[in-house]
């Protein structure tokens, strides 16, 4: 921290890390991987109906990602994001964090998506492919899971303006906001996906990826992050282990039952689980905070974004192997994906993040030096 930069308010000092939330990210990312692998599993194995339902609902891990994103950002940046300079600092940090792996995923997927138009590629590169309700086909272009990053980019754009506004609200107001947002997360998704006899998959492509319809989950996470910051130490020490396990069990039950569109009820246990894991007092939180889980969680962003290109490249490579080995490509793909993602995290994601942040810092320093020299020249004249 430079001497000229104002010291952040007391609320932001000594803010502890939330390793359990890093660990749970891997479980969520791998859940999405299993969801995309369900057709192959159904062909090979006679899966119990509950298992098929559970894996078929794997796309709902994205809801958990959005809640987590709002929670962690609010917890991290509360009290230190107001003003143009801090907003720019936030956007630079987010760009450095997400774009290197995002770009790598597009490079790796390019060979398999060579027929895309220039306009489509531009939209994906600019991370706005999910913003246009009149061109819903763009949302899954080039690298399908990347649509969620387009949604996140919209969240990041809004976040520096939303957080100061939320921070000024009373605890009572935040409580009612949280209650309303939970209802919205459940009800809005349910009727949208339950309109008449329309095809659910087409509705998902056409409506659900729009950022404005997914922002309630992000806002819910933000409200809970602020609630955690305002909670007293004594209150946090009372964090109930029963709540944690009931939330985890509730999520598993809801995701395993044939609830149809009302599977959106999973937003309730997801929200509770995020909050309780952040407190970090339970055995589950401690398991998710181990070095292995934190490493896997740190690599989970790459796991999520690289699943399609790695699956495609594995299929290509194994097609050149002897006939007996070729069928092993599909079941080994998750292992390759996780191992490759760890390497990407260590040798691409983190070095690129540091390099981009350093580049932004050098640009600012250079601009400040030029401005100082210009001011000195004016004074001398």
Tell me about this structure.
With 381 residues, the chain is an all-alpha fold. It has one domain. The chain has 18 helices and no strands. The longest helix is centred in the C-terminal third of the chain and has 52 residues. It is globular and about 80 Å long.
Structural class: mainly alpha
The secondary-structure element order is HHHHHHHHHHHHHHHHHH
Q: Tally the helices: what do you get?
A: 18
Provide the helix percentage: over 70%
Overall geometry comes to globular
Total number of β-strand segments?
0
Q: Low-confidence parts, pLDDT < 50 over ≥5 residues?
A: 1-13, 192-207
What is the rounded Rg?
22 Å
Mean pLDDT over the residues: 88
Main sheet record: none
The structural domain count equals 1
Distance between the termini: 34 Å
Task: Classify the beta-strand content into a percent band.
Answer: under 5%
Summed up, what is this model?
It contains 18 helices and no strands.
Helices and strands in order, then pairings?
Blueprint: H1 19-36, H2 38-44, H3 49-56, H4 61-77, H5 84-109, H6 118-125, H7 147-167, H8 171-187, H9 189-192, H10 200-206, H11 211-230, H12 233-236, H13 241-256, H14 267-279, H15 283-288, H16 291-298, H17 300-318, H18 329-380
Index terms:
381 residues, mainly alpha, 18 helices, globular, disordered N terminus
